[in-house]
Each structure stands twice: as structure tokens, then as C-alpha cells.
Amino acid sequence: QVQLVESGGGLVQPGGSLRLSCAASEIIFSYYDMFWYRQAPGKKRELVAEIGRDGSESYSDSVKGRFTISRDNSQNTLYLQMNSLKTEDTAVYYCRARSLLIDADYWGQGTQVTVSS
Fold first, then answer.
1. How far apart (Å, rounded) are the C-alpha atoms in residues 101 and 69?
2. Which residue in 75, 99, 58 sits closest to 22, CA to CA?
3. Nearest to 8 by CA among 74, 86, 92
4. Do residues 18 and 82 make contact, with C-beta atoms less than 8 angstroms apart?
């Protein structure tokens, strides 16, 4: 059974850092483009960052220069390094694995990130 399990969320002060992880099981990780999304209370889920199978990265304007997405195909793990966190970064963060090669799409259950003083 395919699983994406996020971890690393928590409470942090403004200006602080967190590193999220997303561990994937039962998939051929290298087949998948990987994404981080977030959803704040009362708002729509939004794309934060993505990293392609080839390692190419892109970011939303709201996090560019502060967040870094990376992947370790040998460990089947996706990461999101979040620096200079702001209160508006508070949300549940989800990872997503999508493969156009085999028409597959999976989501994790989410991890809460709260930025507050």
C-alpha cells in the first residue's frame, strides 16, 4: 500500500526554521514528480514548491528565497527546508507524488506548521 508520511512540523517563532520530511513507501520514487502544498484555515490548498524527476525546482512567489525543496531518491524521501518563517506560513503542509509515466497520484496526510510568537 502506497504511503506518504510527512513529519517535522511544529510550533516555531517568526524568523525561525523548520525542515519537513515526506517518506514514501511502495512507490518507485524516481518515477514521481514531488510537490509540497499547504492549506491555511479558511483558505484553499496552494502549491508551495515542486521538484521534478530531473531535480528541477520551482517555488511560489510567497516562499521563493526562503524555502528549499529537495529529494533523496535513495531514501525515498522529500524535504522542505523552511527558513525565515512568517506567521502567514502557518498551515497544514502536504506532500504529493505524481507520476505522468504511470498515471499515479498520491497525497500524504499532512503536518501542521504553526508560526507564532
1. 22
2. 75
3. 92
4. yes
